[in-house]
């Protein structure tokens, strides 16, 4: 059901999500780690970068 959850989640949110599990045998722990990693990635993506001040623009730099 986790696979179906992530498929629906990414389709409805309109984002790309790549899940690559390098190792592990216990399915419960693998699924836990995938959910935790996804949550951390979403948090990082949604947190403003404190190094950027003003409007994000490349105007005049390219």
Short précis:
This protein is an all-alpha fold and 62 residues long. It is 52% helix and 0% strand.
Strand content: under 5%
Report the sheet with the most strands, covering strand number, pairing sense and barrel closure: none
How far apart are the termini? 46 Å
Q: What's the total helix number?
A: 2
Shape: elongated
What Rg is obtained from the alpha carbons, in whole angstroms? 17 Å
Q: What series of H and E elements makes up the topology?
A: HH
Mean pLDDT: 91
- What portion of residues is helical? 40-55%
Characterise this structure.
The protein has 62 residues and is mainly α. It is 52% helix and 0% strand. It has 2 helices and no strands. It has helices spanning 2-13, 27-46. The longest helix has 20 residues, at 27-46. The protein is elongated, with a radius of gyration of 17 Å.
Salient structural properties:
62 residues, 2 helices, mainly alpha, 52% helix
Secondary structure layout:
Blueprint (H helix, E strand, L loop, with lengths): L1 H12 L13 H20 L16
